[in-house]
């Protein structure tokens, strides 16, 4: 029973305490005065009566009613029903104003104050019961009595109200009356655990909608802050009540304030979760709350802030709940589309609907929590049941570990309350218990069928409704309401009377006395055992079967374990990788624990070393996939096993498995230990009670299950039975049971303290290091590299000896473990009620346990170090290039597979990765070399390497190896040679060593200066480049710059070139002079008019030879070939040439990034150049770089114009200003410059009557023109494509006009913008007078006549006028830059605006391309497939754009127009386009020499910034890697694919360049311009100056030497057509992905460093053949695509034939000729044969049919497929090895150094002819002797030209050199002193030189070699 109301309070407006218009309320009276003991009077009621603040109002307002909820300190809720009405009183404001001072009157503007105002007064009922309607009626009655002045005294009514007592639950019905002729009926709910909601839930859904309420529901369960807004207080209370009702069976336990007064708004910034309601009046104050979800009930919106993430219900639950809710709330939705909708589908009445919604949520919770009782651990039964929930197991069984929502709910406070309330097994049950236990099966079967769900929901709703309204027919209420007139005439109302306290108190005392005498009402609670429902095991995983073919996997696991215990180790080893893969699956892991269990006898299983090792490995693998929660109980099952399996180490020393499986998160997780402890305690307590009830109870306890099988009693059932019996037991029995239970828990606690110390203390406690840094909460951070069982080896010893204070450190480990165990013990013992004495005992025991364990571990550790270490694979040494040195020696690592599947065996073939080996860091490369871990391919060698300079990204990763137990630290290294290395450091590599490795790598990758790169440091001793001290460097720089400027001034007009190298005058030392010398300082030389300084006048005759260096530069050779100007001996210019070579930039004063010599029009003086260059970015003004030999059109390149230049350039500059401004004059000069270029074109000069080139006949001109007419539409179309469509369709003229215009002037379409766009006339269209096109512009004629036209008569000549429809010069410019310019109709140039891809795009595209071609991990997601990624990288689109522009330029040049490419800074896209254009137009560039020349000229001389774009130094690190040159090579590759017979070089040549342009092995592609190269002295290195002959400094020399030896770079299909211009298809569909990006050779690493390939073969052959036991070997060889080098294993036919030829020649002992000579011979004979045959036979002409163009294309196809690659064997077999005599039938491969030995190879220190005495009875013979200092040997050959070495005398074996005597048969007429002897350890050689002088020289040379050594 409970009181209906605890307190009645009257609260009024407090007139005395008014603060600035803010009123306050005060309690006028309260009854009873004393607090009840069971419910104290709530504080702050006056705030809640007027939540918006106490205010006086001018007009009376209607009475209001709402219920506020207050929570007291015991978290009991008090319902405060507030009834408020308004009383009139005289305005206190008026009295105040009269009395106040004047200044206050000023402040308040004169508002007319009403004489009478109204103050609020509230009647409040405080109750612990929530009967809103009853309270409304009672307070209404009291108000009615007061207003209408009814006869009943108020005191009596209030007395009755306060003494009314009603039952809390049980479904009774009470009628109450307050003694004023009223009557009310109160129904109490049947079960008070179910909430009572009225219709508030339905109301909430109506206000907010389904989705919004679901959001709020999930937010409340996952502990977010929720704020309701409404202008109605009662609605706020209802909404909050509704939200709490649908959370049943969980109870909300945080702050809950349905109505929050405005004064307390700061509560909203509390950090804890809450559900609060606030009046909309305060909306603005809620705006700045960042983490609060705001639900606006009036507007129906829910606002979730950005920073809040609400976890929603897991699918499919969410979907099904939404469906069910919409069927309840909106039943019409389903039939809305039916043709014949059923007549009535109205939703139920609000009250019923309310229950239906709640039923849906009950159904939802039953599904969420199904089976929860199977995860309860009961750890005490007596005196009170203590229950814990095993969250991890629950989530694991339900396969919802990943589910955010459920995890948060289970962690929440509400669920903790749920467990403590519903956990006990013997208690009263309610609807939810029944549902979750007995209806699970039904729910599962119906969940997919909404209609069945609805039936179930309606049944549940009925029960809920019944609970709230047990009696359907309610007796009539009778309550008076105030009469109408009394409400209106309140004006002269007397205030609410003061009540008589004594009278009320009397009533209360009287009732209390009566209660005491009354007999107690006892309602018996029906307790029963709570049913558990079906066990969780039956619940299938949501994804059906756990893993495919799991049975097979389990079989593998079982077999492997069986093999291990039967000691069949080899079998086990083979199965191991498969087992480790299988252990990824849960079933296999469970199977493993079960199988291992069977091999444990009496808690012990002793194994030998290898068995132990395998078992530990399997355990680790099992554990490493478990999360730290251990949701599948795998770690729990392994826990007893790790203390069972052991091996004997020595006398009395045993090592257990736990010392090797500590490295897992799960052991440091407190929740895991608690769950384990509780489950063990539960088992023991269960056992305890099963024992006590042996005998007759046993029979009953084995209850028969439905299936007739015997079922074990669960612990919960036992407990419930015990709880039932508890009251019947005697006191002694009770205490005995409590003690037994307590001691059980205590003994388990000791046991667990031991277990925990086993798994937490590391084997080597001397190291100050615990499990891992994240581990034990307060433990100091600790490194996690740690040495397992027998791997200990040397590493561990070195560690031990380091530290001087081992005791101190080990005690640290001990302390942290003790702390961890203590925390655990405190927690579990407090929860499970262990007595204090026992707890103290435990605390004293724990340190001893730990200390004892440390001592045993020390012995184990000592012994385990003595074990022979596990055999790890031997580390293989990589072969290094000459001059390449190791920076860091072998570090043992594992190479982990990345996203490429070929090597992992997923696509068939053996799994080459993961591999185990070592990583080496050298000055040039990063090399991994090792063997695959899979035993089936263990004998293969895996190599992966890339140049350190190509490293683009390095990031740390942590890797779990499938074979090993630990999570290792690793690195992921990505290289722009399309290589990726994921390495995991072996546990023997200390983490600081890995750090050192990273530092070294960074140092090598980004040297301070370019001189630190490998190309410069190669061959120098010393590890890393020493950085110079900054201070000195700067000083020398400053003095240098001063001298330079002085001397520059002194020698203006007469430059001395003092050094032999060509370089700026005062650079004696090659120190770098950087940008400190500003452009201006150096450009002093402009003072003299430079046009007078031609090359000959500038350079004195003595220095001319140096100039020849410049002339030798690629550019000049090419310019002479193209006839663009010569530098003849006299250095005079031939005047009739249109172009000249200008030396204006020879000091790099005009443009730093241009070459020294430039081609400019003949008529432009150097002074003009100085001025023009300022208009262009980086001063890169237009220069000629190629001329079409047929049409004489030229190709120019420049940078884009500066912004100010553009506009000046295109505005018509014939403005009649008297003095042209500076800008004008430069733009005039610019026009003059362009005009000069146009004038140089024969077509132009001829047509304008100034025919300077008489040789250029008009017939030629006309032919070219007819070809133009054929091509024009094509060019127009090309232009359209290149420029995009936006610009080329002007919007103003009709279709007809456009069509005609297109026919007439197909090339002038692309206008720039502005006016030009709208006037649809061509270059000459407006004057044609045909009238078809729009009116002609008068300005045009005058302009043409005035300035532009070179003719005296002022009009264009007829020929020019009619024929010339295209511009003479097209300027390809950047769309973005050319805005705002205006095209002039009569300039002879035209601008083609295109969109350029900027460098950033290329950079990003390349990054994505690398990720697509070499993904870092396998992504199963189809959206990230290779082709998708490739497309997203847009690499192909960029190639398409560059190729497209290039083809357009080629067409224009071929049609006779010149083209100027002027994009960005002129060194990226410009260079690409210009080079491609030359390659397509000129066959010369498609040969070896030509391509080299093209790259040297356009890329190197014209200053493509290789160092900057390749991020080669520290300075350019931030700019990142941008492969502009690679893009160009890719374009060449695309063209090569389409025209395979046009190129002399093969695809391999392009790949070779692509690899080495980033490798920094050669100096060719270092630095950003010729200027920088000269500065470093790299540009003109003398041939003889090379320090080490092995090192090639230029990639071109290297290629030449290689090409002499082997046809690897040669394209056998090369048969060019004369002067063919290539026009490739450029659409993306025509482009192919370059295989350079995809291919990999794991057998030897990248094939681009040829020396390495040679050496590997040599090494292989030196190894003696092992006796082969495996029987006859087959000749077949398996070729793996990602392992073998295909071109080497399967060479193409021609290469193979050339190889065979060479080996045959070697067998016959002939000197083999070079492959090229052989090839050329065959070619010529082939040709003559073909000519002789009248009708060429197909077979004979297949190879060389260059004269038969019709067959040419078709045969190209045959050869193209053959891989055109080649093989090194040729190269090596040319020289038989010198160390051993050639074996007949097999030329052995070359020695270390004779790689590139041409006849005059550099490593010959001294050579000449000597006569040598043969062996006994052999004659003296002349031989060519070579003394080689490098190799320290004396070699001899048959003759000087011979390549085959006849023999070698190792100088190391020579003992002395002495003058000799002539012996028998010596050559006649030679002086006696010409003989000398060489004594070696083996024999004496007799030599004879030509004369004594020569002999002396030889002896000295040999002697010096010996002394050097």
In round numbers, the mean pLDDT is 74
Segments where pLDDT lies below 50 for 5+ residues? 97-110, 538-548, 695-710, 768-809, 1021-1108, 1128-1133, 1205-1223, 1248-1273, 1285-1364, 1582-1589, 1658-1673, 1734-1802
Number of strands: 42
User: What count of helical segments does DSSP give?
Assistant: 64
- Spatial arrangement of strands, main beta sheet: 25-24-23-22-28-27-26
**Given the C-alpha coordinates, what overall shape results?**
elongated
Largest sheet: 7 strands, antiparallel
Class computed from helices, strands and strand pairing = alpha+beta
How many whole angstroms does the radius of gyration measure?
Answer: 49 Å
Beta-strand content? 5-15%
Report the span from N to C terminus: 113 Å
Portion in helices:
40-55%
Could you list some keywords that capture this structure?
1909 residues, alpha+beta, seven-stranded antiparallel β-sheet, 64 helices
Structure write-up:
The structure is a single chain. This protein is an alpha+beta fold. Helix content is 40%, strand content 13%. The chain has a seven-stranded antiparallel sheet, covered by helices on one side. It has a seven-stranded antiparallel sheet with strand order 39-38-37-36-42-41-40, with helices on one face. Strands 3-2-6-5-4 form a five-stranded antiparallel sheet. Strand 2 and strand 3 form a beta hairpin. Helix 54 runs antiparallel to helix 55. The N and C termini lie far apart (113 Å).
């Amino acid at each position: 029973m409970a009181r209906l109301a605890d307190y009645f309070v009257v609260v009024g407006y407090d007139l005395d305490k008014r603060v600035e218009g803010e009123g306050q309320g005060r309690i006028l009276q309260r009854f009873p005065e004393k607090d009840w003991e069971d419910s104290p009077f709530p504080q702050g009621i006056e705030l809640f009566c007027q939540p918006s603040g106490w205010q006086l109002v001018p007009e009376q307002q209607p009475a209001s009613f709402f219920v506020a909820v207050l929570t007291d300190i015991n978290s009991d809720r008090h319902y405060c029903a507030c009834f408020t009405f308004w009383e009139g009183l005289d305005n206190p404001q008026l009295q105040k104003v009269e009395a106040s001072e004047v200044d206050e009157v000023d402040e308040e503007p004169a508002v007319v104050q009403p004489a009478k105002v109204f103050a609020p007064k509230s009647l409040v009922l405080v109750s612990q019961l929530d009967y809103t309607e009853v309270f409304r009626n009672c307070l209404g009655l009291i108000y009615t009595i007061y207003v209408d002045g009814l006869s009943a005294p108020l005191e009596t009514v209030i007395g009755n109200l306060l003494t009314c007592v009603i039952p809390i639950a049980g479904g009774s019905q009470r009628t109450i009356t307050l003694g004023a002729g009223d009557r009310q009926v109160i129904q109490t709910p049947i079960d008070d655990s179910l909430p009572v909601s009225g219709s508030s839930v339905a109301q909430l859904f109506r206000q907010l909608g389904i989705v919004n309420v679901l959001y709020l529901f999930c937010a409340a369960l996952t502990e977010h802050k929720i704020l309701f807004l409404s202008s109605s207080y009662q609605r706020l209370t209802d909404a909050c009540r509704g939200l709490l009702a649908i959370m049943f069976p969980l109870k909300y336990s945080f702050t809950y304030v349905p109505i929050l007064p405005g004064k307390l708004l700061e509560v909203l910034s509390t950090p804890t979760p809450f559900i609060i309601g606030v009046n909309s009046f305060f909306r603005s104050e809620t705006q700045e709350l960042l983490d609060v979800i705001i639900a606006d009930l009036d507007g129906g919106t829910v606002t979730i802030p950005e920073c809040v993430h609400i976890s929603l219900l897991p699918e499919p639950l969410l979907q099904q709940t939404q469906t069910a809710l919409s069927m309840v709330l909106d039943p019409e939705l389903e039939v809305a589309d039916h043709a014949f909708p059923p007549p009535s589908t109205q939703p139920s009445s609000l009250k019923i609907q309310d229950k239906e919604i709640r039923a849906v949520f009950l159904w939802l919770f039953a599904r969420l929590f199904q089976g929860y009782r199977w995860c309860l651990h009961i750890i005490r039964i007596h005196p009170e049941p203590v229950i814990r929930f095993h969250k991890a197991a629950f989530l694991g069984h339900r396969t919802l570990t990943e589910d955010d929502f459920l995890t948060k709910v289970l962690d929440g406070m509400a669920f903790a309350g749920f467990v403590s309330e519903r956990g006990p097994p013997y208690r009263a049950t309610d609807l939810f218990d029944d549902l979750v236990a007995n209806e699970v099966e039904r729910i599962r079967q119906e969940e997919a069928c909404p209609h069945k769900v609805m039936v179930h929901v309606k049944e549940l709703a009925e029960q809920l409704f019944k609970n709230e309204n047990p009696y359907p027919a309610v007796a009539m209420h009778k309550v008076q309401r105030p009469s109408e007139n009394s409400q209106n005439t309140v004006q002269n109302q007397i205030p609410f009377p003061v009540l008589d306290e004594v009278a009320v108190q009397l009533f209360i005392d009287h009732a209390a006395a009566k209660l005491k005498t009354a007999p107690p009402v006892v309602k018996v609670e029906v307790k029963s055992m709570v049913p558990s429902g079906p066990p969780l095991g039956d619940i299938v995983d949501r994804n059906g079967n756990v893993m495919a073919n799991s049975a097979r996997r389990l079989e593998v696991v079982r077999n492997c374990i069986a093999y291990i215990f039967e000691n069949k180790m080899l079998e086990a080893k083979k199965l191991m990788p498969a087992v480790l893969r299988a252990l990824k699956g849960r079933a296999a892991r469970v199977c493993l624990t079960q199988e291992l269990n069977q091999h444990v006898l009496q808690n012990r299983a002793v194994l030998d070393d290898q068995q132990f090792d395998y078992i530990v490995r399997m355990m680790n693998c099992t554990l490493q996939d478990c999360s730290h929660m251990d949701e599948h109980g795998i770690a729990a099952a392994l826990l007893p096993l790790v203390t069972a399996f052991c091996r004997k180490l020595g006398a009395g020393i045993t090592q257990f498995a736990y010392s090797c499986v500590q490295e897992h998160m799960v052991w440091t997780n407190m929740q895991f230990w608690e769950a384990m402890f509780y489950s063990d305690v539960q088992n023991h307590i269960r056992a305890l009670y099963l024992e006590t009830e042996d005998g007759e109870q046993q029979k009953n306890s084995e209850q028969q299950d439905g299936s007739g099988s015997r079922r074990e009693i669960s612990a919960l059932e036992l407990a419930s039975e015990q709880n039932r019996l508890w009251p019947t037991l005697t006191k002694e029995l009770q205490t005995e049971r409590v003690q037994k239970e307590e001691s059980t828990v205590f003994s388990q606690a000791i046991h667990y303290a031991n277990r925990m110390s086993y798994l937490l203390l590391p084997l080597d406690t001397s190291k100050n290091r615990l499990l891992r840094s994240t581990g034990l909460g307060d433990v100091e951070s600790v490194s996690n590299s740690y040495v397992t069982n027998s791997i200990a080896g040397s590493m561990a010893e070195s560690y031990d000896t380091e530290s001087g204070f081992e005791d101190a450190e080990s005690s640290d480990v001990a302390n942290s473990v003790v702390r961890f165990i203590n925390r655990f013990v405190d927690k579990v013992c407090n929860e499970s009620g262990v007595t204090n004495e026992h707890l103290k005992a435990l605390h004293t025991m724990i340190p001893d346990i730990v200390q004892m364990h440390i001592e045993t571990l020390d012995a184990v550790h000592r012994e385990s170090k003595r074990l022979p270490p596990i055999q790890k694979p031997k580390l293989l040494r990589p072969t290094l290039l000459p001059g390449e040195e190791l920076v860091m020696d072998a570090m043992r690592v594992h190479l982990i597979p990345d996203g490429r599947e070929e090597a992992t065996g997923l696509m068939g073939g053996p799994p080459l990765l993961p591999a185990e080996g070592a990583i080496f860091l050298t000055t040039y490369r990063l090399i991994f070399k090792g063997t695959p871990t899979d035993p089936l391919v263990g004998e293969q060698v895996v190599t992966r390497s890339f140049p350190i300079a190509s490293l683009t990204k390095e990031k740390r990763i942590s890797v779990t190896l499938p074979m090993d137990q630990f999570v290792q630290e690793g690195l992921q290294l990505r290289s722009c040679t399309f290589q990726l290395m994921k390495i995991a450091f072996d546990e023997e590599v200390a983490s600081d060593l890995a750090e050192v490795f990273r530092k070294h790598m960074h140092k090598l990758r980004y040297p301070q200066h370019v001189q630190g790169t490998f190309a410069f440091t190669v061959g120098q001793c010393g590890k890393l480049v020493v950085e110079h001290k900054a201070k000195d460097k700067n000083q020398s720089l400053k003095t240098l710059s001063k001298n330079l400027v002085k001397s520059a001034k002194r020698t203006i007009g007469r430059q001395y070139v003092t050094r032999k190298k060509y370089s700026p005058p005062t650079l004696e030392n090659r120190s770098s002079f950087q940008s400190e010398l500003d452009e201006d300082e150096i450009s002093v030389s402009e003072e003299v008019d430079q046009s007078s300084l031609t090359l000959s006048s500038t350079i004195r005759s003595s220095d001319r030879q140096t100039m020849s260096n410049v002339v030798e530069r690629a550019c000049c050779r090419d310019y002479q070939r193209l006839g663009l100007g010569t530098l003849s001996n006299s250095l005079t210019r031939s005047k009739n040439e249109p172009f000249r070579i200008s030396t204006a930039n020879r000091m790099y004063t005009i443009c730093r990034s241009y070459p020294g010599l430039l081609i400019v029009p003949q008529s432009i003086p150097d002074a003009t150049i100085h001025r023009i260059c300022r208009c262009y970015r980086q001063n890169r003004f237009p220069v000629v770089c190629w001329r079409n030999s047929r049409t004489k059109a030229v190709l120019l390149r420049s940078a884009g114009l500066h912004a100010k230049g553009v506009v000046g350039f295109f505005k018509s500059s014939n403005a009649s200003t008297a003095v042209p401004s500076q800008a004008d004059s430069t733009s005039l000069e610019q026009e003059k410059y362009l005009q000069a270029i146009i004038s140089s074109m024969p077509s132009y000069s001829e047509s304008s009557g100034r025919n300077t080139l008489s040789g250029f006949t008009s017939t030629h001109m006309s032919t070219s023109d007819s070809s133009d007419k054929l091509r024009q539409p094509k060019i127009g179309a090309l232009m359209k494509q290149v420029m995009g469509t936006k610009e080329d369709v002007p919007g103003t003229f009709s279709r007809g006009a456009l069509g005609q215009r297109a026919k007439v002037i197909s090339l002038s379409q692309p206008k720039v913008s502005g006016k030009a766009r709208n006037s649809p006339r061509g270059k000459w269209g407006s004057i044609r007078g045909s009238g078809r096109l729009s009116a002609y512009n008068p300005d045009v004629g005058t302009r043409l006549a005035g300035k532009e036209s070179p003719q005296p008569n002022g009009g264009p000549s007829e020929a020019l006028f009619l024929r010339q429809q295209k511009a003479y010069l097209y300027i390809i410019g950047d769309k973005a830059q050319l805005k705002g310019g205006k095209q002039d109709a009569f300039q002879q140039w035209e601008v083609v605006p295109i969109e350029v891809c900027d460098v950033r795009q290329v950079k990003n595209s390349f990054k994505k391309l690398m990720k697509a071609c070499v993904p870092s991990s396998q992504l199963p997601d189809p959206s990230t497939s290779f082709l998708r990624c490739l497309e997203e990288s847009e690499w192909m689109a960029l190639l398409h754009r560059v190729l497209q522009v290039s083809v357009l330029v080629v067409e224009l040049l071929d049609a006779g127009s010149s083209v100027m490419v002027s994009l960005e800074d002129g060194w990226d896209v410009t260079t690409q386009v210009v080079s491609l254009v030359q390659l397509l137009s000129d066959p010369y560039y498609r040969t070896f020499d030509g391509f080299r020349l093209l790259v040297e000229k356009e890329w190197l001389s014209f200053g493509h910034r290789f160092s900057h774009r390749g991020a080669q130094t520290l300075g350019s690190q931030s700019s990142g890697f941008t492969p502009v040159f690679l893009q160009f090579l890719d374009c060449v590759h695309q063209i090569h694919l389409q025209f395979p017979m046009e190129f002399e070089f093969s695809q391999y040549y392009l790949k070779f360049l692509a690899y080495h342009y980033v490798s920094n092995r050669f100096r060719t592609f270092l630095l950003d311009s010729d200027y920088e190269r000269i500065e470093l002295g790299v540009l003109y290195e003398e041939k003889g100056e090379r320090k080490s002959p092995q090192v090639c400094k230029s990639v071109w020399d290297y290629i030449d030497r290689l090409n002499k030896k082997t046809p690897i770079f040669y394209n056998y299909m090369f048969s060019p057509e004369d002067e063919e211009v290539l026009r490739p298809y450029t659409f993306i569909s025509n482009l192919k992905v370059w295989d350079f990006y995809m291919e990999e050779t794991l057998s030897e690493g990248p094939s681009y460093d040829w020396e390495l390939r040679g050496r590997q073969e040599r090494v292989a052959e030196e190894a003696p053949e092992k006796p082969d036991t495996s029987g006859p070997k087959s000749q077949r060889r398996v070729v793996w695509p990602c392992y073998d080098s295909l071109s080497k294993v399967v060479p193409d036919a021609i290469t193979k034939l050339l190889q065979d030829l060479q080996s045959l020649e070697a067998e016959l002992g002939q000197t083999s000729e070079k492959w090229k000579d052989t090839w050329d011979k065959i070619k010529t004979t082939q040709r003559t044969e073909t000519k002789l045959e009248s009708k060429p036979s197909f077979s004979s002409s297949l190879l060389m049919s260059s004269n038969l163009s019709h067959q040419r294309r078709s045969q190209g196809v045959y050869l193209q497929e053959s891989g055109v690659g080649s093989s090194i064997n040729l190269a090596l077999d040319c020289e038989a090895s010198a160390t051993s005599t050639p074996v007949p039938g097999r030329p052995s491969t070359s020695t270390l150094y004779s790689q590139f030995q041409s006849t005059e190879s550099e490593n010959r220190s001294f050579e000449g002819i000597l006569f040598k005495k043969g062996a006994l009875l052999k004659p003296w013979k002349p031989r060519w002797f070579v003394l080689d200092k490098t190799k320290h040997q004396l070699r001899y050959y048959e003759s000087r030209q011979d390549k085959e070495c006849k023999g070698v005398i190792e100088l190391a074996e020579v003992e002395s050199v002495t003058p000799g005597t002539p012996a028998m048969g010596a050559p006649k007429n030679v002086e006696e002193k010409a003989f000398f002897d060489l004594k070696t350890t083996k024999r004496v050689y007799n030599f004879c030189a030509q004369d004594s002088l020569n002999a002396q020289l030889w002896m000295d040379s040999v002697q010096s070699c010996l002394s050097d050594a």
